[in-house]
C-alpha cells in the first residue's frame, strides 16, 4: 500500500470512461462483439472499471455487469443526454 493510500484512502484506478456495445450501432465497428469479449478486453487491459456509454439505451449494461460479476471490474452505466450544442454524459 502506498503512503498516499495509508494516509488519505486515495488510490489510482484505471477506468475506460467510454465503451460502446452493439446497442450503439452507429459507433461500433465490430457488431459481432459480445459481453464476454468486452469484459475479457477490460481484464486484458487491467482495468478497474468500465463505463458503458451507448446512445439513448442501457440495453447492454446488465448483460456486461452479469459477466463482470466474477471479476474485480466495476461496470458503470453512462447516460448520454441528447443536446443540440454538446453531448453531455452522466456516470451513475
Q: Tell me the CATH superfamily.
A: Metal-dependent hydrolases
Gyration radius over CA: 15 Å
- Spans of at least 5 consecutive residues whose pLDDT stays below 50 are none
CATH topology: TIM Barrel
Count of DSSP-assigned helices: 3
The proportion of residues in beta strands is: 15-25%
Structural class: alpha/beta
Strand order of the largest sheet: 1-2-3-4
- In one word, what is the shape? globular
CATH class: Alpha Beta
Count of DSSP strands: 4
The N- and C-terminal alpha carbons lie at a distance of 28 Å
Q: What summary fits the major beta sheet?
A: 4 strands, mixed
Helix fraction, binned, reads: 25-40%
State mean pLDDT (0 to 100 scale). 84
What pattern of helices and strands is seen along the backbone? HEHEHEE
Q: Which architecture per CATH?
A: Alpha-Beta Barrel
